[in-house]
Amino acid sequence: MSILSPFLSRVIRQGRLTVVAPDGTQEIFGEPATGFPEVTIRFANRRGMRRIILDPRLGAAEAFMDGDLQIVEGDIMQLVALIRMNTPWDRGAKLKDKTWLGRRADWLKTRLGSINRQRQSRANVKHHYDIGNDLYRLFLDADMQYSCAYWSRPNMTLEEAQEAKKAHIAAKLALAPGQRILDIGCGWGGMAITLAKLEKVEVLGITLSEEQLALARQRAAAAGVADRVTFELIDYRDLAAREPGRFDRIVSVGMFEHVGAANFDTFFRAAANLMTADGVMLLHTIGRFGKPGATDAFTRKYIFPGGYIPALSETLAASEKSRLIVTDVETLRLHYALTLRQWYARTLAHEAEIVQMMGERFFRMWTFYLAGATAAFESGGMGNYQIQFARSRHALPLTRDYIGEAEARYAG
């Protein structure tokens, strides 16, 4: 226990963490506090303790996945939340930066890990999205929206919040009949199909996931919009070379996180070239509060290889090089945390099916991922940005009134 005590004593001040060592001895860290969890964990062996000392984030994840770390009271969501709540990103304390060496190491890991040439991009997508549509059906909403929902009023269901998200985004696109829309990273087709239902537009959705492509095509046919909504397995870079200037509007939801820091300039250049002279793009992405950072080892290894969460500063800096005008920015601070808690609850409710489908270790890995992500949005440095871009300063109305008017119409 002596190797963990100094670390946990520094971190756990509010809330209570009870740690039971392999020999049965226990130590308690922190004090009970309103709103803070109380959790008991047990180490099955000393290997689990050593893993955490050597690499707290990845070590804790793998110790939990392998059963070296077991939760006796509470659950993994509460454990991760307890740690994060004691060290919130926006805590207001004296700021201390990492050393130059630490910053440089993080920068190198992130840039080298997210170069994402086209072949690697396909492999990265396959790692996360081609593990089976059946898994995603178990914890997503009925429309299979695998991105931050929009909680526009209290007590919404996940389904209602995802519908509100699509209406919110559609309103910012300033849709009009006859427009040609491109959905970059279309997922299972829900956004593309919704846009075609809201307005008489033509939509092309592109993805690198074969599983998503097949289901998206089926869903468009079932919705009766296959004559105006098509899907293709193609990289955005190839599409930009093939069809420059074709699209009046571009929407991209939850895809920019997979582009990779090294490709930001390429992404925005491709987007600008794909749009008409008065085109508009709405980019919905997870983003960092504060300055650029690095992708943690657990996420790089198990969840999103090649992924990188951008800071707003580097996103806008990259877009400026392609003469895209930033016409609107909205920061969704807690919406993804609410979404993730719904996904986590549904994952727990389907534990038996997921274990049978993917195995015990995968289930523990997935719950750790959802718990860690939730804590990052509740107490860490993560949020969501919706950024509207235009190629021409004349492309959109002079005031934002049109957004609220269209959103009320679409959501009604």
From TrEMBL:
Annotated InterPro entries: CFA/CMAS, CMAS, DUF7884, SAM-dependent_MTases_sf
Domain DUF7884: 16-83
GO biological process, one term: methylation
Record carries keyword Methyltransferase: yes
Domain of life from the UniProt record: Bacteria
GO MF annotation terms: methyltransferase activity
UniProt keywords, alphabetically: Lipid metabolism, Methyltransferase, S-adenosyl-L-methionine, Transferase
Keyword Electron transport carried by entry: no
Family: Belongs to the CFA/CMAS family.
PANTHER family in alphabetical order: CYCLOPROPANE-FATTY-ACYL-PHOSPHOLIPID SYNTHASE
Protein name: Cyclopropane-fatty-acyl-phospholipid synthase
